[in-house]
Amino acid sequence: MGYNIVVCAKQVPDTKRITGEAMKEDGTVNRAALPAIYNPEDLNALETALQIRDAHGGTVTVLTMGPPNACVILRDSMFRGADRGVLVTDRRAAASDTLATSYILSQAVRKLNPDIALCGRQAIDGDTAQVGPQMAEKLDMTLVTYLEELIDLKDREITVRRNVGNGWEEVTAQLPVLATVMETANHPRPHAAKRIMKYKKARSKLEMEKELPEGADIDAEAETLAAKGLLIDQWTLDDIDADLEWCGMSGSPTKVNRIQSIVLAGGEYHEFDPTEDGCEKLVHELISDHTIG
Ligand SMILES: Cc1cc2nc3c(=O)[nH]c(=O)nc-3n(C[C@H](O)[C@H](O)[C@H](O)COP(=O)(O)OP(=O)(O)OC[C@H]3O[C@@H](n4cnc5c(N)ncnc54)[C@H](O)[C@@H]3O)c2cc1C
Fold it and tell me: Is any atom of ligand 1 closer than 6 Å to the C-beta of 125?
């Protein structure tokens, strides 16, 4: 019968490649200085979704909320096997904290009405791991966090193994379910060459407006792309019936008190031989600079 699966994926700055320009003088993130990547655990969520679709049929829709450029990760998803991409983009969503973000995403997920919604466990920039659970609450969907293995999916019942840190838990739940997926769940599949050839042409309307010559009939172009399955759906807050009070600044109770820019400087480098004498010198040094003792 197939399952309608939605994967929430976030475009994030590559926090592994932080340089001195990563923060602006006012303490906000200088996104221009950091390459934007697919949030790593969202790729594991996508892989889980694709495995379910491949085994049971259905469709995989990848949903992202972000600026127009976030379409890059929607195309990336299509190169790997996703059937459809949806971008929620709206200036009125700016300054959303996790509560507002999860509200906006849950409105979009509600519109997609999935049997299974998958998130990454955590985003590498905000790092809160709150968005998935907050969405499940708002959508009244059963929540399964820390999915590490999909054990069984039959009819409308899913059994998964959760990694709870110092052990595992096997849980069974009735669909619809929202699960957050861990990086240890699988190895995300690479791009498929044939899919790159097809989906490299996938575009949202906003991208078309930027790329096509002035005066081009965007609606007609969008229809042509849609007929080929290459239109990236683009939704505003109005399209998902969002209450503006719950979005952006007004929907965000988090108040940032202070942001500190910490620049880690490399210290003096000492090397010790892997000998008894070397170990003695290392311990002596650690005691003398009060690291231990
Ligand atoms: C006061 C305040 C203001 C902020 N203003 C802005 C701002 O103006 N612009 C901005 O970009 N950020 C802003 N943020 C950051 C923003 O709130 C978080 O990035 C967002 O709520 C996601 O939280 P997280 O990164 O901790 O995600 P987590 O909760 O760690 O993410 C878990 C999972 O949820 C899903 N998910 C999370 N975010 C998205 C998304 N956007 N699209 C699809 N799936 C998603 C993914 O599957 C992800 O793996 C602000 C935060 C605060 C506290």
Answer: yes
Residue nearest to atom 2 of ligand 1 (CA): 97
The pLDDT score that the predictor gives to residue 154 is 94
Per-domain residue ranges of the chain: 3-251
Ligand 1 mean position to 97 CA, how many Å? Answer: 6
pTM of the model: 0.88
Residue nearest to atom 28 of ligand 1 (CA): 129
Mean pLDDT estimate for the chain? 93
| Neighbouring-strand partners of residue 162 | 147, 169
Task: Please indicate whether residue 41, judged by its CB atom, sits closer than 6 Å to ligand 1.
Answer: yes
Asked if residue 209 has its Cβ within 6 Å of ligand 1, the reply is: no
Domain 3-251 class?
Answer: alpha beta
Residue 283 near residue 290, CB atoms below 8 Å: no
* Ligand 1 atom index nearest CA of 63: 43
Look-up of token digits 């004498």: 277
The answer to whether residue 206 scores a pLDDT higher than 80 is yes
CA distance 277 to 269: 18
Cα angle 162-167-173, degrees, rounded to a multiple of 5: 25
Q: Is the CB of 120 under 6 A from ligand 1?
A: yes
Summarised one tens digit per residue, pLDDT across range 81-133 is 999 999 999 999 999 999 999 999 999 999 999 999 999 999 998 889 999 99
- Find the 47 Cα to ligand 1 centroid distance in Å: 21
For the Cβ of 65 lying below 6 angstroms from any atom of ligand 1, the answer is yes
- Shortest CA distance to 63 belongs to which of 16, 14, 101, 13? 101
Helix, strand, coil in percent for the chain, rounding step 5: 40, 25, 40
